[in-house]
Amino acid sequence: MERKIRSVVQGFQRSFVLMAANELGIFGALAEGALPVDRIAGDLKISLKGAERLLDALAGMEILAKENERYRLMDGWKNYLALDGENSLRQWIQLNADLAPVWLRLTEFIRSGRQIKNIMDDLKNDPEKMRAFIAAMHDKAVKDARLLAREIPIGEARSMLDLGGGPGTYALEWAKLNPWL
After folding, report:
1. Which residues have a Cβ under 8 Å from the Cβ of 24 and sit 6 or more positions away?
2. Could you tell me the pTM of the whole model?
3. Which of 14, 51, 127, 177 has the fewest CB atoms within 10 Å, measured from its CB?
């Protein structure tokens, strides 16, 4: 039981390692292949000591492999962590990093019952944050949208109305499978 409790309590650490690497551009730097830590630190303009600790943590999480003092993305991860990955979750990871300060105030919300932060207030006043939020929603939905579009045939339909579909991820996937739509 103690091991399970420790795992739950310390689970945030792995999340923060992944979110930091995402925000710093580690996965983009490694998208083309293995690199030594000094090259990664120099390219990203981060400290060598910090880069090495972060890369070693990612290797410990089996996201990166460390071979001959060079780091590379483990097989399969590029698809989810590189900007051009088919199933990229970079924007969604960043959204969760942006929301981390709100989660740190969960106890305050529970005590008071008052909303800590309304993300929509932040988004409507900052076009860049709004763009990132929409991209995060797309990242999160694209895999499910592909599955759903395959599972629910549209038959003879020639048009589709997407109401409240955010960035249009679901409608786009149906249109990809049905070019006449």
Report:
1. 44, 46, 54
2. 0.79
3. 127
